[in-house]
Amino acid sequence: MDPIKEAMLHRSRSARIERRGKLISLFCITLIVVVVVAIFTFVASRGLATFFTNGVNLWDFISKTTWSPAVKDAHGAAQVGALPMIVGSFGVTLLSAVVATPFAVGAAIFMTEISPTLGKKVLQPVIELLVGIPSVVYGFIGLSVVVPFIRHVLGGTGFGILAGTFVLFVMILPTVTSMTVDALKAVPRHYREASLALGGTRWQTISRVVIRAGMPGILTGIVFGMARAFGEALAVQMVIGNAALLPTNLISPAATLTSVLTSGIGNTVMGSLENNALWSLALLLLLMSLAFNLLIRWIGKKGEMK
Predict the structure, then answer these.
(1) Which site from 100, 129, 235, 252 is most exposed, i.e. has the minimal number of CB atoms within 10 Å?
(2) Across the strands, what pairs with 72?
(3) Spatial distance between the Cα atoms of 221 and 230, rounded to a whole number of angstroms
């Protein structure tokens, strides 16, 4: 064969490296997909056993308020009502997002529009420090400071949704702030220049142009913060009271899906009703995480359409 033709048909070293890189990337992606599917399948198989093996009614599981899997009621049915934990989880998640959003947006506006230099030198390191603090430290501070403060001011034990809200507010604030900063920085500069050229003040430009243009990114940051708050376990468990009761107010002891899981999963026998009921709570958490991810993708697509 002609040496030139043979050289052209022979795969070069760079082509072999590129092919090897593609195979490694494909293997890693496949491994990730397999792990996610395996986790979802395992949790679903355990969680659905409550309804298919133990015969618990799905509506009763979601709507009833008594959580005592080891005790039967007068009709011999298991008492696995998850409504108190569902209400507790959504309560602390929504309230912490409501409290954190104004602070996060205000800090992001200061860092990007009012004083970028000071924000980069002072606020950015503080936010990064808050991200790195372990959740058990937040929980311990909440147990030592927030709970006694609520007890002294509002009465009661101090444990409850309000204490969990304050702790989660500090925990999700860095996430929401960082993503809001990125969203505001992504707004094109000529938007601001056009608004100022038309006679708008700096605050009018920020409130009516910059924030509106960055709203999809801001909403994404809020949903990310809610997803973290919904799945947080240790810090909330330390301050919420861990009482599987339907909360009547913000300062009465309550429980979340994660707090019941962490406190009870090690005290049950695999395959028993008590264990399967906890896996059902884990499946509910997994489905909510999926719902948060779908919501984030929907918000992102709406932003791209604009």
Answers:
(1) 129
(2) 78
(3) 14
